[in-house]
Design goal:
The complex is a heterodimer of chains A (309) and B (281).
Chain A lengths: L3 H14 L2 H33 L2 E2 L7 E2 L3 H8 L1 H32 L6 H9 L6 H11 L6 H8 L16 H26 L3 H9 L4 H12 L1 H17 L2 H7 L11 H10 L4 H27 L5
Antiparallel strand pairs in A: 1-2
Helix pairs in contact in A: 3-14, 4-8, 4-11, 4-13, 5-8, 6-12, 8-11, 11-14, 13-14
Chain B lengths: L2 H37 L3 H6 L11 H9 L2 H32 L5 H9 L10 H10 L6 H25 L4 H8 L4 H12 L1 H17 L2 H6 L8 H11 L4 H21 L1 H9 L6
Helix pairs in contact in B: 1-13, 3-13, 4-7, 4-10, 4-12, 5-7, 7-10, 8-9, 10-14, 12-13
Classes of the chains: A mainly alpha (309), B mainly alpha (281).
Chain lengths: 309, 281
């Protein structure tokens, strides 16, 4: 039979009081594996990238220090700026549509309707598919002769709307954007749904007693209380549009036609592997980082406040 | 507004909602069904019967696709990389997150925010330098490099999630375990970990999906055809062969159907796993 009284004191002495440092040591070695992996493969490459950006390098031979010249080349690179512009168009367009649609669908699903779970699952499913798979599938959906879209238009008698969805430089980017929207809207719907379900029903009931109609309730209760979720949702789609769309663009158009769908990442990868201008590519990455860091900071901020410390 | 009017308004809203839901379901599911239908059509039927399902399913498309694209090897590689990534991610993150959540030690906050910096360093920005670090480590063209890189990407966000999860577990549990004679480490393995299953499940879905579906980093780090994962194999196949579309669709289906099945079984986990952190609680 344990003599719990004195054993307690012994235990406590052994493991709690005696060793502030033993505790700290335990903590440190529990963190070290993750820390090493993180520093070597996330933090260090950031600095290495900066370092390389000051050199001319083809990836194989000696690096040659050229100071800020790469940055000058990048600023003069028309295709890079086209890629950045495309990235912005992509980002803003996709973010607007995904979030508005997502919110709309969340509002729809939030009602007492049959089949909500099935609907939620169906709408979310594309999120689980690999972007390369989606890209290849949609390339064929967009196919001018045998694809679903043009055939549908023809069947509906809307032949004049038939396009070269991916071959027309003027609309290719938008065609790719549609694919991104198709994949991710369900994700944003789920985010907004969770946000909506976090709003206490009492607010709405109180408003109804005061005679508020649908729109009044939406703008005065729903919108303000969705602030945090909206911020996170918007930031995530903006960041994703700058650094997460390599797969889909590469597979569907490779950046063409005529760089009309070239985005920041595809051009960086091209510069590295096709043109072997590794230093310049790193300079581009640094510039891209500056653009994205602003959103990253915002995400950092929104995710660390309001959370249990 | 009188009672009848209100009821009518609600019914209209509901009808409208059902229509919207139906449209969305068609838009999301039909392309996937179309992909599966297409994979079972013969060459000629693929071009002539665009909408409907295959009249005489050509199951051999799957066999040909499997063989021509070396899908067996690709599958194996994808499994190795995904399982490997999880084998690294789960222990590393659990330990670190537990330390942050439950142990008071100097530098705790600083280190935690250091990990959170990864939120500001999106994957794409460091891809090229990561490539050169991998070369420096002599790991180019290996699946191990993929495992390590994919794992490293999960550290910041994963620690953030698991720490929040551990914090939500009551402190009494470890104290009870230690009274019964466990060391803090023992308490961790025997009491906390089993209770951490939901949090771990989230990590599994999140990191597992990212690893399984990855193309970008994989294409940069692995060039050897024998080591390619499914996404790489898919793109490689397209580049190299004049496309037989039904077979291509069979490939797409082979890559996608496992995920669909897993998704149907565990949608709740998928949905909560992939949106964790963005949603409170």
């Amino acid at each position: 039979m344990k003599n719990t009284g004195s054993l307690n004191l012994e235990m406590r002495k052994k493991f709690h009081l005696s060793s502030k440092w033993q505790r700290a040591l335990t903590a440190y070695w529990m963190i070290i594996p993750a820390l090493i992996l993180y520093v070597v493969l996330v933090i260090y490459p950031m600095f290495k990238g900066l370092y390389i950006s000051f050199h001319r390098w083809d990836g194989l031979s000696e690096m040659k220090w050229i100071g800020l010249d790469n940055y000058k080349f990048v600023f003069a690179d028309k295709i890079f700026w086209k890629a950045i512009k495309n990235s912005f168009v992509f980002a803003i367009g996709v973010t607007l549509v995904k979030n508005i649609l997502g919110l709309f669908l969340a509002l729809v699903v939030n009602q007492e309707l049959r089949g909500r779970t099935f609907f939620r699952a169906a709408a979310f499913m594309p999120v689980t598919f690999a972007f390369v798979v989606i890209g290849v599938l949609w390339s064929w959906i967009y196919n001018p002769t045998f694809g679903l879209i043009n055939n549908l238009l023809q069947a509906m008698g809307l032949e004049s709307w038939i396009q070269g969805w991916l071959s027309n430089p003027k609309i290719a980017l938008f065609s790719v954007m549609v694919v991104d929207i198709w994949k991710w809207t369900g994700f944003h719907m789920v985010l907004f749904l969770a946000g909506l379900q976090g709003i206490s029903k009492e607010y709405y009931e109180a408003a109804e007693i005061d005679g508020a109609g649908m729109f009044r309730k939406f703008f005065h209760i729903t919108v303000p209380l969705l602030g945090q979720v909206t911020a996170v949702s918007v930031i995530m789609s903006m960041v994703g549009a700058f650094v997460g769309n390599y797969d889909v663009v590469y597979v569907m158009t490779g950046g063409g036609p005529f760089h009309s769908t070239e985005v920041a990442l595809t051009w960086i990868v091209n510069t590295t592997f096709r043109y072997a201008q590794v230093g310049k590519a790193n300079a581009m990455s640094m510039i891209l980082f500056v653009f994205v860091a602003i959103f990253g900071l915002a995400q950092f901020y929104f995710m660390t406040r309001n959370k249990a410390e | 507004m009188n009672k009848f009017g209100k009821k009518a308004q609600k019914s209209v809203a509901h009808l409208f909602s059902y229509i919207v839901m139906a449209v969305v379901v068609i838009l999301t599911i039909y392309p996937v069904l179309w992909m599966i239908f297409g994979s079972l059509k013969s060459d000629t039927e693929f071009y002539s019967n665009i909408w409907g399902w295959p009249t005489n399913p050509v199951w051999s498309n799957y066999v040909t696709a499997w063989v021509n694209a070396d899908m067996g090897i690709r599958f194996l590689n994808s499994i190795i990389v995904t399982v490997g990534t999880l084998a690294v991610v789960l222990p590393f993150i659990s330990m670190a997150a537990y330390a942050f959540a439950k142990i008071k030690f100097p530098g705790s906050n600083l280190l935690f925010y250091f990990f959170l910096l990864s939120l500001m360093i999106p994957q794409g920005v460091t891809a090229i330098p990561i490539f050169s670090v991998v070369i420096n480590l002599g790991l180019q063209n290996t699946r191990l490099s993929l495992i390590l890189v994919l794992s490293s990407q999960a550290m910041g966000f994963g620690i953030f999630l698991m720490r929040a999860f551990f914090i939500s577990l009551p402190k009494e549990l470890e104290e009870a375990a230690m009274i019964d004679g466990c060391t803090p480490i023992g308490a961790f393995f025997r009491v906390i970990l089993p209770l951490a299953k939901p949090g771990l499940a989230t990590m599994v879905v999140f990191s597992g999906m990212a690893a399984w579906n990855d193309y970008f980093m994989s294409s940069i780090l692995v060039r050897n055809s024998k080591l390619m994962t499914l996404p790489l194999g898919l793109v490689n196949y397209i580049g190299q062969h004049i496309t037989n579309y039904p077979q291509l669709f069979a490939m797409l289906s082979i890559v996608t159907i496992p995920i669909v099945i897993a998704y149907i079984i565990g949608q709740k986990q998928f949905i909560s796993g992939l949106t964790a952190g963005a949603v409170k609680g």
